[in-house]
Amino acid sequence: MAAKTVRFAVANDLHAQFVPSVTMHTGYPGANARAEWLLSQVEYGGALAGVDFIMGAGDFIHGENLASIGAEMAALKERLAKLPVPFHPCCGNHEVRQQEGDAAWESPYVRAFGADKFDYAIPAGAAEIIVLNNAGTFHVGAARREARLENFRRLLRARPGVPKILVCHIPFLPVRDNAVLRESFGFLSYKALEVELLDTLEVDGGDVRLIISGHLHLTGAVAVGGVRQLVTSGTASFPHDYPVVTVTPDAITVEVRSLPEEMHEPRTNLHGPPRYKKDYTDVAHPTGDAYLRGNADERAFTIPL
User: Could you give the CA distance from residue 300 to residue 85 in angstroms, rounded to a whole number?
Assistant: First the structure.
């Protein structure tokens, strides 16, 4: 019996603050309205009506300290409970403030989603989605790195021969020129910094066709070997993109969409003015707009299965 077609949207880098609190840090202007717009689109008549589920790719809240993370995660849980479709989360650094593996910092996420929603797998028609928690890349100790690695190996090996989509908050592969991206992002975590994860992907990841991540607050895709890395800006930062992924028995199709133009807020750009005095570019993206949004073949593509 042929696998059914599955369609899902990805929500990442919402940086929502759905509750007033004195502990909250200043977030992104308009982030709440854009997050609410995306979540509302699964309702009847919305742009995402008919998707089977929403896949989260991290940084649903702005967080920054334990008190605000607790308050914001509780408010997010209440909002997600109203969705007419399932929401499958992936932990981002703002959910735990880079404290991956720390029980106290992870407790708001656990209360919202459950302790089993850090490293896990879900079916997606002809493919399988593997969720890997790498929210604290570079900021974790040896014990957590080893536990993460073992979880990754276990998930990759569990269903050999089944095409896989890997979802993790921190991208495995740089989607811009490596040196330029490191400078424009401004943080060390512009890509996963654990070489053992890349080694494991090479050895055990032959079934992985697509990696979906966020974190960078820009949109782009790159193909390395047989794996495509997709990153989207999310809703908090300009250019306010989100992807829709369709899995058929024969292919994985990706379409990156932007929020309505009237909701755009250019001052939330992390890779140009006003954060920097210049736009960033690289050889493949010769304008600031292309650097932020990606080229046409980064925003729509098909991966045969």
Answer: 24
Fold of 6-304: Purple Acid Phosphatase; chain A, domain 2 (3.60.21)
Instruction: Give tens-digit pLDDT for 67-94.
Output: 999 999 999 999 999 999 999 999 999 9
In this structure, the chain runs to a length of 305
Q: Write the DSSP symbol of residue 231.
A: E
**CA distance readout (Å), 297 to 228, 230, 258, 271, 286:** 12, 11, 15, 21, 15
Cis, bond preceding 274 (omega within 30 deg of 0):
yes
Q: Please tell me the distance from the alpha carbon of residue 118 to that of residue 132, in angstroms, as a whole number.
A: 7
State the DSSP H helix or E strand holding residue 291, giving kind and residue range, or none if neither: helix 288-293
CB burial of 191-212 (b: ≥16 within 10 Å; e: otherwise) equals: bbebeebbebbeebbebbbbbb
- Regarding pTM above 0.85, the answer is yes
What span, in angstroms and rounded, lies between the C-alpha atoms of 271 and 239? 10
